[in-house]
Amino acid sequence: MALTTAQQVRLRIQDAWRWDEESRVGDGTGSAYKLRQGAPHSNLSAVALSIVSGTTLTATGGTVDTGLGLVTFSSVISAQSAWRANYQWAVFSDEEIGFFTAQGGGVLGAAVEAVKVLMFDSLKRASWSSPDGTSYDDTAAMKQLQDLYKMLLDEQRQDPAGGIESWSENQAYWASEYNA
Fold first, then answer.
1. Strand order in the sheet with 32-34
2. Exposure check for the chain: N or C terminus, fewer CB within 10 A?
3. Nearest in space to 150 (alpha carbons), one of 105, 107, 119
4. Same domain flag for 131 and 73
5. What single-letter DSSP state applies at residue 15?
6. CA distances for 103 relative to 26, 76, 98, 109, 110, angstroms
7. Which pTM value belongs to this model?
8. Per the domain annotation, does 4 fall within a domain?
9. Which helix (H) or strand (E) holds 44?
10. Is the pLDDT of residue 180 over 70?
11. What is the rounded distance in angstroms from the CA atom of residue 41 to the CA atom of residue 14?
């Protein structure tokens, strides 16, 4: 069976759907819980919920905001009642993959668009320090993204199905895109 365009893009950018599960115990006061995955770092899909009191399944209800990774039950989860969520997650949602494909015109162009988003996101956390002395430097990841971006642009330029532009028309963009 052939891969869909979205599956090809996910394979190209190594953003396959991953499976996870979480079990939590209610405290008698809360009805909303944040899963490990969800905004701002990932998107959820295919979430299944269950609530167990002792050894008895008492409910399977609840709503999930897949963008945020927020589980909300219709009432408070009683103390010592457990709930479980099984879900799939990926960095990019299916809608985002579709947008990248539309913007990029195909699998290669979608990969370029995804890397642009990751590059912009990495600027927010490239290097920082806090008053308590904690510091973080993720500039190596930014360098890797820049190298990947350049590689994808080179591949795009060599693609014979690259579009109707002539060689001379593309030269105006070479310096600004390649040396970004």
1. 32-34, 70-72, 63-65
2. N
3. 119
4. no
5. -
6. 44, 44, 9, 7, 7
7. 0.71
8. no
9. strand 43-53
10. no
11. 15
Total domains in the chain come to 2
Residue 160 lies in a domain: yes
Residue 81 tokens, joined: 């009642």
3-class secondary structure per residue, 94-119: HHHHHHHHHHHCCHHHHHHHHHHHHH
78-89, pLDDT tens digit by residue? Answer: 888 888 888 899
Domain range enclosing 172: 94-178
Rg of the Cα atoms in the chain: 22
- Amino acid in the structure at residue 86: N
Predicted confidence (pLDDT) per residue in 63-115, tens digit: 888 888 888 888 888 888 888 888 899 999 999 999 999 999 999 999 999 99
User: Is there a single domain that holds both residue 45 and residue 63?
Assistant: yes
